[in-house]
Each structure stands twice: as C-alpha cells, then as structure tokens.
Amino acid sequence: MDKEITNAEIKKLLSKKLATLRKDSGQTLEATADELNLDLSEYFRILKGQRLPQLRTLLRINKKYGLNMDWWFKELEETAVNEKHFRQKAIEAQLLSLLRKLDLGSQEVVLSLARALVKKAAQENY
C-alpha cells in the first residue's frame, strides 16, 4: 500500500514553491497578494505553509506565472515512487538474508514456491 500524502506535506511543498515564485518575481508580499486578489493575511498563511490554497487561488497563481497544476505536485509523485522503490529493495534484502540462512534443500523449496507465485501472477495479469 502506498504512503498517504499528508496535508502538512502538501502545505510545505506549495509554500516552498510559492515563496520561490514570489522571490524570483521581485514583488513585495503586498503587491503579489493584491495581484492575486488575496487578502494579505491569507496569502501570508499560504506562503508560510499554515494553510492550503483554494483551487481557484492556485489557478490564479498558475495564470500569473504561466504554470500548470502538474508543476505544483510532481515532487509528490516522485517521492511516492522513491519510497516504493526503497521499500521493495528493503524487502528483497530481507528475503535474501533469510534465504541464505536456509539449507540447500529448503532454498530449492523456496525457489520452487517463488516460481509458482510468479507464474500464477503472470496468468492473472493476462
């Protein structure tokens, strides 16, 4: 099961990206908030990761900076893929470690079982 992304992680990611956009634009907080039609305090809370922006706010930001929604969230997908890969490698290492502790006959039984499981999985995917 994949790890659930938390609101805190999303807030952190969005605030980091929003801060970079604002800084690179050279605008003040006030000017940026005004241009995005946001109350300064709301913009500040989003900027500091205390609040998630509404969808229409993200759309206004996208329009202002020429972005699309993928730009905001691509790191979340990469993180999930990296965690899945890490988990898979950890399981493979555990299996190999346990397999090495078995005698040859037991290793052959495990190998036969693994082949049967792979064959069954391949048949189910067709």
Automatic annotation (TrEMBL):
Pfam families: HTH_3 (PF01381). Residues 18-72 form the HTH cro/C1-type domain. Gene3D superfamilies: lambda repressor-like DNA-binding domains (1.10.260.40). GO terms for molecular function: DNA binding. Signal peptide: none annotated. It comes from the Bacteria. InterPro entries: Cro/C1-type_HTH (IPR001387), Lambda_DNA-bd_dom_sf (IPR010982). This is Helix-turn-helix XRE-family transcriptional regulators. It comes from Candidatus Termititenax persephonae. The lineage of its organism: Bacteria, Bacillati, Candidatus Margulisiibacteriota, Candidatus Termititenacia, Candidatus Termititenacales.
